Amino acid sequence: MKRLLVATRNRGKLKEIRAVLDDLVDELLCVADLPELPETVEDGATFVDNALKKAREACLASGLPVLADDSGLVVDGLDGRPGVLSARFAGPAADDAANNRKLLAELEMLPMASRKAAFVCVLAFVHPDGTEQTFQGMVIGRILDDFRGEGGFGYDPLFLVDGFQQTMAELSLEEKNHISHRGQALRSFQAYLRQREQR
């Protein structure tokens, strides 16, 4: 594929995506490269809704094939919250620290059995030819009651990964990318793109 627009302003996320798609895409752009693109209001009820909305709007505005993602944390004991509001759990201008404090406060009285959680990522690919595809990744774990690790971002220091003794923030970047929800979804998209390019 000659050009692919990733519907994000996060250069770190773009770098992660580039590492997986480097041999398949000649030029990888993000919305920061096209400042005229409108900001998408993420008001969908699901990760799929938001990812598709971002991809569709960016595709329509740019005329380019677009990859968009929506991801977040789903906690069993909180009936699936924070879910699609993960980045804004403590309010529209909340940072990671505020979101983590709110999460710990809401889980304070719950037993560890109710702290089961999953990181979920949905990638949406929308092409000007009308193609729409989604790809999902998920990693299971539980929420600790204290922070562990210096790496990662968001809820990573509180998320103990099933099958590991480390939180997401304690894993190396290579380990995290191998098991992460976004890594899984990206590898599914990579396989799809390889097939598409061979047609």
Supply the CATH architecture.
Answer: Alpha-Beta Complex
CATH fold annotation: Maf protein
Pattern of helices and strands: EHEHEHEEEHH
Helicity level, as a percent range? 25-40%
How many β-strand stretches? 6
- Distance N to C terminus: 12 Å
Q: Spans of 5+ residues with little confidence (pLDDT < 50)?
A: none
CATH structural class: Alpha Beta
In a nutshell, what does this entry contain?
By secondary structure, the protein is of the alpha/beta class. It has helices at 11-21, 47-62, 96-107, 173-179, 181-198; strands spanning 3-6, 27-30, 66-75, 116-126, 132-143, 159-161.
Description:
The protein is of the alpha/beta class and 199 residues long. The protein has one domain: Maf protein, CATH 3.90.950. It has helices at residues 11-21, 47-62, 96-107, 173-179, 181-198, and strands at 3-6, 27-30, 66-75, 116-126, 132-143, 159-161. Strands 2-1-3-4-5-6 form a 6-stranded mixed sheet. Helix 4 (173-179) crosses helix 5. The longest helix is centred in the C-terminal third of the chain and has 18 residues, at 181-198.
